[in-house]
Amino acid sequence: MKGEGDIINKQKLVAIVGPTAVGKTDISVEVAANLDGEIISADSMQVYRGMDIGTAKIQKHEMVSINGKAIPHHLLDILEPDESFSVADFQALARELIQKINERGKIPLLVGGTGLYVNAVIDPYNFTPQETDYDLREKLYAEGKCYGNEYLHQKLLSLDAETGKKLHPNDLRRIVRALEIYYQTGKPLSLIQKEHNCRIPYDLVMVGLYCDRDILYERINKRVDQMIEKGLIEEVQGLLKKGYSPKLNSMQGLGYRQIAAYLTGLLTKEEAIELLKRETRRFAKRQFTWFKRDKRIKWFNIIDFSQKIIYGQKITEYISRTLGSPVE
């Protein structure tokens, strides 16, 4: 039985999530300033150095609130584009940071739109390393190529429905990994995670940002145009000149994949830009679908994007009430 001390000793954690271009970056800075917090980026692309424009990475001058308070940001620019980085790596780094920020008497804010990264931190995801069976992996990928991704996804659903429901049918890498683990251990990944993990000791508050779909799509289209104006093409060109292959995981990210296709002659410039807009809109829809299933999230409708101070205050008041911390 848990005593009062178990509750008191829980680490505080705020998660601010939502689709791309909804305003998480700006609003989270204001919330962090109000709560005396520090921000941990939960973005699978912003960990890479030299990939700033295409990831809409926050810049130094933007890490300052309206009232002039500088907000520490973590897990940005920690890797070169050709370095490997897994969800398990992120989980370990983020959980270590959460503990250290709490020990400093600050509030950690996990901010981003990579749903799997967020859930890997706040939920009992276990990434038990297994020996890689390359023959099995090759066989599974061959099945996917022959019968389609949906075939493998349905196979996973029949063996491990809980994990399968969390993965998109096109997330072939994770589907194959989950199938590998099942065939190697005889247990579904979801069961292994439950067996090897206890409840994460966080006093957690989750906030989601959303807006009207047409407005969001308009913002996405405008953001892509602004990325092009800021030099996205030149950024990707520079990465290719440094020898980073378009096949790298980092270069498969939104913006980089499409512009690399243009620079290597597979698409025209206009085709690449339109494709980037369309795929970003689809990505935003998948993000919202992922997060809206989580009933722990308190949603805030962002109507006027110029009022980040007001939204920051409203969100701060909600978080403060829920965490039991006074608003300074």
Explain how this protein is built.
The chain has 328 residues and is of the alpha/beta class. The chain is 52% helix and 10% strand. It is built from 14 helices and six strands. 36% of the residues are buried. The model is unreliable at 1-8 (pLDDT under 50).
Attribute tags:
328 residues; 6-stranded parallel beta sheet; 2 domains; Rossmann fold; Histone, subunit A; alpha/beta; 52% helix
Strand content: 5-15%
Mind telling me the C-alpha Rg? 21 Å
Spatial strand order of the main sheet: 3-2-4-1-5-6
Return the structural class.
alpha/beta
What is the CATH topology classification name of the largest domain? Rossmann fold
Shape: globular
On the 0-100 scale, what is the average pLDDT? 91
Q: How many structural domains are formed by the residues?
A: 2
Number of strands: 6
Q: What is the end-to-end distance?
A: 35 Å
Task: Lay out the secondary structure.
Elements (H helix, E strand, L loop, with lengths): L3 H5 L2 E7 L6 H12 L1 E5 L31 E2 L12 H17 L3 E5 L3 H8 L11 H14 L1 H11 L1 H6 L5 H14 L3 H8 L5 E9 L2 H18 L1 H10 L14 H8 L5 H24 L4 E5 L6 H16 L5
Parallel strand pairs: 1-4, 1-5, 2-3, 2-4, 5-6
